[in-house]
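Q: I'm writing up a methods section and want to include an example of the input and output format. Could you take the sequence below and give the corresponding predicted structure tokens, formatted cleanly so I can copy it straight into the document?
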Amino acid sequence: MSDTIFALATARGKAGIAVVRVSGPSALDAAAALGVGPLPVRRGVLRNLMIGDELLDSALVLFFAAGASFTGENVVEFQVHGSEAVVSALLRFLTSLPGLRMAEPGEFTRRALENGMLDLTQVEALADLIDAETEAQRRQAQRVLAGGLGQRAALWRKDLVRAAALIEATIDFADEDIPVDVLPEVRDIVERLSASFAAEIEGSRGSERVRAGFEVAIIGAPNVGKSSLLNALVGREVAITSAVAGTTRDVIEVRMDLGGLPVTLLDTAGLREATDEVERIGVARARERARLADLTVLLLEPGETASDTEADIIAWGKADLVPGPNSVSGLTGQGLDWLVEEIRTGLQQRVSGSGLLIRERHRSALSLASESMASARQSLYDGDPSLELVAADLRTASHALDNLVGKIGVETLLDEIFSSFCIGK
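A: Here is the clean output for your methods example:
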């Protein structure tokens, strides 16, 4: 029998409400020790919390029965007034009860995983949801948290089990006449899974960029207004602006929410033939970061013709002095709405068709399954297919899917994942 754990599930400090969560076999005993009588299931009731004869607080108390709670265990939540004194007294009292202990970081979620209430992809999505800074990140995390990837993996695995059963039956009865040729059905399953895996992997880059954030590099000649444009886009002065060419000698990074997408804007050193070593390094870094960025904005002087520099968006600066189409001004804000929409549209095109693989681990697991499908497909279309090799490939693919959802081979990963959770989650 596991310990009963408890923790403050809301942030510390003065607040209107604080939630203390208790999970485990003694959760109801903890409520009883506070003078709370029988509790209805999944319905909040107002109760006085008593420590001996002294009233601690009036609280809304909720009970979730084992099998129908977040952790899969009996869970009691106390919603008390958000006073530090009230919360400290309640946690102190729970500590004194036999069989109860303070939860470790992520322990509630870990129990949800161990009790089958969440799979590993949902646990990771929960961490991403907590860390979400933009609307796109929130939506993506919610899709996976709702079980989308786990459900899809279950369907894939069902097909793999069917194909493996057909192959194994053929191997087991190799010396007997089997009335039905199973290879056409197996080929159909392998073809279907191969296409599905490939489509999901193809969309993984966009999904991973939504999670990690995009990089947009502002490039151009010195003193064209890149730093002023960056400051205007983020709404605060983050880059040094000066009329002296070569002021920006390194890459300045600013993270922001741009149209619901997580974006890191890069203000780069002016692109020119530098005369001193420090600026030369800055220009080299600017070119490299621009090459690696998801999208580049080339800022030109008014009337200047675009050079051979490859850029996704071309804009002309100093629109306050020389207004024109596709011109912007970091000083007055002219053209910023146009530029923001151009950047947002460009990045949206990069995430169109993105799937449910939102982490490198997900893509690696499914890539292994995809490679196994390719190997099985090659064997199946051989003149004299080796069924043993096909069976081995199907098992490898099945194990990869089990690894994806956390059924096998992830023990070393769990501690790292849960260490990023706060206590009480």
